[in-house]
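ARCHIVE CARD
Drawer: 12
Card no.: 0347
Subject: one protein chain, sequence and derived structure
Cross-reference: see card 0346
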Amino acid sequence: AGILMTCESSIGYAFDTVFILPYTQQGSYIRVTSPNGGESLPLSSPNSINWFFSSDIVKVSIALYKNDAFFKWIAADLPWSKESVVGVGSLSWNPSSTLSNTDDISGQVFKIYIIGYKSGGGTVEDKSDAPFNITTSAAYPGFLMKPDKSLYSLDDIVLLTLSRADNRTEPYSVDLYAMKSDGVTRELISPNLQVG
């Protein structure tokens, strides 16, 4: 499950997603949560790669797939600290640091592939459910959203803090959605909230 927040103003559109556990899968697992399909990532701006993982995962490697085939490594053997939020991983990634000027980025053809290395040996893996695209359009910085804690029970109240990331002062209109566990279906929780 997750919370998807979209943000609109007269100067652009942005979105951010915060996934809220509980994630009840048993055994070892890793699951890409974003980008998970349909997104447009700006080539020259930071983007978040996010995933859920079981407690026995000690490091990850992340690759960029193109047309469902390995294309380039984004990060290899990235250790995962036990002091980090349990079960939730994130990496800030600027696609221009992975792609060269001669790479063809046209079309919605990319996926994130992630390998989780287990403490007792062996691996688990996952990739984006559907392709996303990488665009040369300038990014609209929008906002950042942060939950008050990393794990929630179904009866908990979630406190989300919205931070402006663009240093602008005009108000935003924000829609708040609940994302279903399939990572695609969403339900409007609260429309047209005025911010700032």
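Annotation on reverse: DSSP finds no helices and 15 strands in the chain. The two ends are 27 Å apart (CA to CA).
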